[in-house]
């Protein structure tokens, strides 16, 4: 083992939370190292974690490619645009995705170099006294010691005991990003973000997609009205979403030269069976804490394998912090961004802070879903008095001109103070529009503030203006 190297800050993990923490720490003048074990498809080190390599960025690339193909077949005709017998070259689509991923992972390496962050490629384990041992992919071990250590190990796909990943027939999100052809029959276990987004990709390209969701409610975390509209639209697009479907068994069986996935599940009508060519298991993610902590490091895990931290992401062990998917809270890249920056600033003695009440959620399906703040259900359970206003995209000039009329915007405000408590959107472009709600809530604004801000016409953002006006029953473009 080589001589121990000293750093002010050592970050384990170069995903969204980790690389933000490392770069911000270096910007603040601290000698910083960042450890990551991720490899690209070429077998070379690739920074960026799940988000850049096999998550947010590659899935959006495929979503955009498949959306263009779908619109060419189903929407462009209304504009007078026709194309005879269009084809999708899956290899080209996946290659484009890979090129984008390589661009961004390489971009982080350049940012590390520009900010003088020292990268180490391999698996990092925290030991007592803020010592981190890094085992490289070649088996060599390097020992580092940090005044501060930031744990940003991210998360892994949850594997079901009766549906083990084989990387070909039963896959997680990684496998579903790299199908070499469009499966005729694709099964998806789990109607969450990953299942819906990747299910949508392959449905648009022609796959018969069946989504099996164990819960009786669709997208229970979202606003119930938005979820209802989204479910209707997804089914119109051909996604066969079965709710209350509890999977109990998956078997691989040969049929000639092909391998089929036989799935058994139960629903309100009893025991059911269905056959797929590919099965995507998307039942959630778990903290990637395995092998991260030596027994003597004193950092504690909760009963879900997450690292225990306080509101400032400190573990209770002197100089040890943890951020992103491996701690409590939403497993969202942008939540990790903010925690990484907060911790770096706290280490530097600055007032770092994350407002967890204004973190937006987005599902990049078609239509998109987005929300920030409380749902009506949550406010009712809390006993908080509230009022709402909504506006449909079907009444919005820009949306009608685009041929994208599904969905609506809902603004929820406190019944007495008028302060915005939540914003819920389903429709085209709402992944961008939701930030009006984030900004308003961050500055403790009211529905009346939103209603009195001039929005350009015709735009999609007018839907927020009209929804805010509807809170006090003064909308112009809909009946109150």
TrEMBL record:
Record text on cofactor binding: Binds 1 FAD per subunit.
Keyword Cytoplasm attributed: yes
Catalytic activity line of the entry: N(6)-[(R)-dihydrolipoyl]-L-lysyl-[protein] + NAD(+) = N(6)-[(R)-lipoyl]-L-lysyl-[protein] + NADH + H(+)
Compartmental location: Cytoplasm
PROSITE patterns named among the record's database cross-references: PYRIDINE_REDOX_1
Residue ranges of domain Pyridine nucleotide-disulphide oxidoreductase dimerisation in the record: 359-467
Limits of the FAD/NAD(P)-binding domain: 7-340
Keywords: Cytoplasm, Disulfide bond, FAD, Flavoprotein, NAD, Oxidoreductase, Redox-active center
One Pfam family of this chain: Pyr_redox_2
Cofactor: FAD
Gene3D superfamilies recorded: 3.30.390.30, FAD/NAD(P)-binding domain
Its EC number(s): 1.8.1.4
Record-stated family: Belongs to the class-I pyridine nucleotide-disulfide oxidoreductase family.
Note: The active site is a redox-active disulfide bond.
PANTHER family found in the cross-reference section: DIHYDROLIPOYL DEHYDROGENASE, DISULFIDE OXIDOREDUCTASE
Protein name: Dihydrolipoyl dehydrogenase
Gene: lpdA_2
